[in-house]
Amino acid sequence: MSRYPDWMTTNPRNPPQKWIDLYRELRRRMPEGDPAPLEISRVLSCNEYTSIVVRRIVKDPAAFGLATPQHPGELPTLDRWDRDQYEQTRQAEGLQWDGSDHRVPIDELLRRRVRRFEEVDRVKSKSQETTIEVKVTGPIAITHIGDPHLDDDGTNIGLLKHTIETIAKTPYMYAGNIGDTLNAWPEGSRLSGLYAHQATTWDEGIRLAVWLLESVPWVYTILGNHDQWGQTATILRQIMKGSQCAVITPGEARITFKFPEGEPIKLAARHNWPGGRSMWNRAHNVVKSSKLGAGGNADILIQGHTHVWACHQHEGDDGRPRTSLIVKGFKDWDSYAEDRGFYQHKHGHSCTTILDPTAGPMERVRVVWDIDEAAELLAYLRRRR
Fold it and tell me: Which residue from 18, 77, 284, 350 could staple onto 278, CB 3.0 to 4.6 Å apart?
């Protein structure tokens, strides 16, 4: 027994109005394509039998006396009645392409394109591979500032202020910004409504960003996912335009520190390393990236983003100890974590790596989580040298 009604085989050009209406409703919602019965059922909220019938019409609407609808806004292709007259007028009045592109010889155009690529390649390569020639002997320190979120009410701004002040007054201590300097909720988005629930305005947030980015010597600044919403990245770049920051990038800051004495030390920082998550190891993605040689086999791999902290150290296949780090950031109270029941870490806002090029392999990179202790240890190591 056929699954189709008699009218589809005996009198296909006279289907009941019900099927015509359903077909037209489908084409109103899906102007193009050949949807499967299951898709038709979903769109029309109809049963399987009805969807099979409607699809039969979709397959060949002309067989049922229905014209195939055109794409909205599509005009039929016609032979222009004025084609000959148009061509004659254009030639007579010189209505040709103005030839502005022909004023530049193709060789010059190619040279311009080559120069442009070389400029882009130079900038991109610099952000991927940066070498810093350290001018002083002995150890230096890099304090990695976790996600600041300066304008968020849940940010521990007092601890961040103390951290910045300590870096600023400690010789040979530098800073790295792991990203998300501001909340920067994008204008016009659903998230922009969160501004109604924070006390700090956008303008005040920019003033806080200027304070942060001009207060200490920066080695790197990562533009986190929040920093890349709207015009925030452009604003942060302008704030840091006159700074001595070695790398400002939305991607990976890969830096090699070359010292007058001892071995070079490599650092690779991202806002978030790829590699997934693991319930057994919060630093899973950073460790995985390190073991796979990410960051040019860097001695230190670090990230922020997840608002947790973790530290893992292991020995690479080349015999060099490697350190994988996650810094929590200064946002102690996060409504997103509260809504989803995530545990909110209480420590690890920032961490300091002390780079000691003449020390033994296991002491070449020291990780200190307390900023005051890091400053004291750096001063002691430099005196001892």
Answer: 284
